[in-house]
Amino acid sequence: MSVVVPVFNSAASLDELCERIATTLDAADEVSEWELILVNDGSRDESWERVVELGTEHREVRGLDLTRNWGQHNALLAGIHDARHELVVTLDDDLQNPPEEIPSLLKAVSGAVDLVYGRPIAKRHARMRRIASRAVRGVVTTITFGRIPTYVSGFRAFRAALLDDVDREQGNTFVLDILLARAAGGIAAVDVRHDPRRYGRSNYSLGELGKHAVIELDSLRRLAMGPGGRAPSYAVRTTTRVPAEDADMAGQVAGS
Question: Which end of the chain is more exposed for a tag (fewer CB within 10 A), N or C?
């Protein structure tokens, strides 16, 4: 399975994030192989340098460095396109989504259920942000006749095949959950822990939440109207090293 994490000014949390993901997935019966893809979305701190170091320390870790700050959903799409496994999990870089809950999401992806959200038992966001988020989700759920549920969150597990027909030309403003909901046969949620923020501060002010609401509604409009003007959703500046096993295989092919 592939874990994709958008990274923005999160150098301080990356070591703990990587360690907890590795500990959880190495012990999970549901996981035989896994990778962690860290997508640096125009960070202004030392996040990319730390991603590179983690890639050398852990064979399962790979990094993508985007050319600028493209936005969370665009960074996620970049990582998903780079993923190598059939199941994908996304979570935030601030550890409010506990990596220890990943197996619960994976267990719920089965049968007709293609997409599972982690539904926080108790959200640790500011009260005004919770109210604003709930209002946006209610509007979107209503106008999509319940196709996009109110419990949508950034903590997701889904079959990578849901995005097989989604290319890089989605534009700079789109919402991943709309594309997932369009393709998913079944959508579910599981209750998960939501921890207090210990690193940095939220990038989502009320103004940013309002901006995201406009983007989400516009994404729905464009989806209903069909493809419009095409534009790249992201551009990758560089990636971390090729995993050792791939390098060995490349050497064998070159020498054959």
Answer: C
Residue 17, number of CB atoms within 10 A of its CB: 24
Please give the chain's pLDDT, 256 residues, in tens: 999 999 999 999 999 999 999 999 999 998 999 999 999 999 999 999 999 999 999 999 999 999 999 999 999 999 999 999 999 999 999 999 999 999 999 999 999 999 999 999 876 545 555 545 555 555 555 545 456 666 788 999 999 999 999 999 888 777 888 889 889 999 999 999 989 878 766 555 555 555 555 555 565 556 555 555 578 999 999 999 655 545 454 444 444 3
Buried (b) or exposed (e) across 150-175, using 16+ Cβ within 10 A? ebbbbbbbbbbebbeebebebbebbb
Q: Domains in the chain and their CATH numbers? A: 2-249 (3.90.550.10)
CB contact at 8 A, 124 and 197: yes
DSSP lists the bridge partners of residue 89 as 3, 157
Beta-bridge partner residues of 207: none
